[in-house]
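We read letters as residues; the fold follows as tokens. A sample entry reads:
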Amino acid sequence: MHVEGRHTGSKLSETFTELMVKWYIDKKMFALTLDNAAANEVAVRDIVADLKANGSSSLVCDGLFFHVRCACHILNLVARDGLSVIAHTIENIRQLVLAVKGSPLQWEELMKRATECGLDTTKGLCLDVSTRWNSTYMMLRDALYYKAAFMRLKSSDRRRYEKITPSPNEWSMALKLFQCLKKFFDLTELLSGTLYPTANLFYRGFCEIKILLDDWCDSQDTTISAMATSMSKKFEKYWKKSSTTLAVACFLDPRYKKRLIEFYMRKFHGHAYQSHVDELVDVIKNLYQFYCASQPSTSRARSGSEHMPSDTIDMLVDNDDEELENYLYESSRPDGAELSELDKYMADAPLRISGQFDILAWWKNQVDEYPILSQIARDLLAVQVSTVASKSAFSAGGRVIDPFRSRLDPEMVEALVCTKDWVAATKRGNNNSLNLVLVHEFFIIVLC
């Protein structure tokens, strides 16, 4: 959607609210995933207030789950803060990569040395960009791979490379930084996925990052310690805002349930962990009660006697005896309380599954056993914890309409964007023949 003028919080909320009503999605909104810009904070506050004012809206638990902060944006901010502290330690590697990448002749010399070392010459070298921390990670990854080739290049031309070739200590530091940043890069890749739910992956991934940062802060290496300290400050800021609500999605993963949350709570809070677990369980119970209350009331079937022959009806069944009914159908539990879906789900042991696991298919098969929890899982697991995928989708038009193809008809642009997506789907092996037929028919319709 297009927002005219400055993108202030009030302007964003006004535009979004108008379109939300126009598109009839105000009663279907569960969550809104945004990056961490200050204007978005204001916009979400205004949108939630508007939904609360509208009594017919389906705002879940008073908006507790509505604002989801982009996990990849948080990782980006945390990593950039850390890199700003240790940028000087990898300066020689950056200069060396820049010198080789900036000259076709020197690049050819490096590839010759790489061949002599038995390295793959098709991998290439990535040059980092100051606004993209992952480019720094990829630069370190590629430079470390070609380390032996760089050393041979230095030996072949000492006058050119003597001053900018990293020392053994600098190579060692680059390896440590690469290993640290790899955790952030891998988690960013995981949470940016579009072919599987990501909400249930957030809590465990961020807990592992938090543990790593705590360990790095205690490192004997002053460079790693300084980097981790800077990272931790930014991480804690967003951890407090995001950990509780998205932990519910982790709870709905039958491989983890409450056990994984208790495991990490013990690590973070020691003997005081139980109060934090109880706080999360209260959130889960409130969510469960909200969905229970939103279910249509159904009358309990009495006896089914209307479908039986009249001569087999026991007339005593028609005599309402509340005391007898309570005694006949009361729960066998000692406290007389009926076990709810939520209690049963928490009582069952987590699933021991290795390898790939389709959580959506699992919950689909559990609809009969957990009708309410399956609805919660359907809504909560649909939440994307990253805006990377949506931004990439909206950027597709810019990659199609370049300066050399600026006069394409809207229909042709649509055809190109859709076809690219469908061809990518065929490469994943999903209904190949059907997808190819759809692509062919779509182009026939557009071109005619």
